[in-house]
Amino acid sequence: MTSVSNDNGRAFEYVIVLGLKKHLESLGIDYLETERTTVDNSRDMLKLKELPEAKQKDFILAASKFLEWVDSEGWFIGADKITIDRLPDKEGQRNNVTDIELKIEKGEDIEQKNISVKHNHDALKHPRLPNLVAQCGIEDETIDRLWRENHDAIWTEFNRKSKDLKADAKTFKELKDIDNSFIDKNLYKPLIDAVIKFLKENVKDNPDKVKSFFNFLTSDMDFYTVKNERLKVIIKKFLDITPPTVMNIEYPYLQRLNTFKITFDNDWEMTLRLHTASSRMYKSVRLINTSSKLDVMCINLDDLIDMEHIDKSN
Fold this sequence. Notes:
By secondary structure, this protein is of the alpha+beta class.
């Protein structure tokens, strides 16, 4: 995610939380804002003010449409107190994609609503390759070390070949300008081959690991995604999802060397597209930038979960 995209996302989260607080006050419901939420809101209030006025108004409109939907769902009926918590990005590196967590106290019961906020993409997640072992639910330091060594060795070999192509290249684009398929063949394919080999050897035939990997790619808890589009707000309900026990891998997907597909036996079909996380090849003069990540998309999501499309013009 680019810095601009990240800032916009945080600004949208801030607007939703601000709208929530005002809405709860209008309903006469007590609320508690966690300390980290207060800190994040102070930071992101400035990010919102830096946006063009039209973007600010759009975020405010989208948040109001979401809150109207929340009311129609009866989330706050009978609520005595609500705790609002904005979770840090590091939670997404685990199994939790929640950006805003609401704990709704109703008498002795506490209902939890998990909200994932998106404003410009449909990806389920953007996992980094070096953390693959933990993402599969494997807690073995030796396996993790061997995987990371293999990952780094592929990057080292790619770096050697890139110097043969253009010794003074500073960006990946410079390599593509010379040979459009160079990165696909010499970086993405070896990395994806290694990922698939690892998944087949350590995950594919183990139902518990298949479930763990699926839960990492989606979440191991129920949540709602709020996506802001130009003309509408989409509410996606990731609720009561049956975890899989079997998965099959297709590569390359649609003849693309940077993409593979996983089909799970709970009918979820995901494409995982690999790309570099930065345009620059080096972190410093000699240190290769080995940052790469996967864009994970569910290509049949419309058939799997309920969604509501809210027109922003009404």
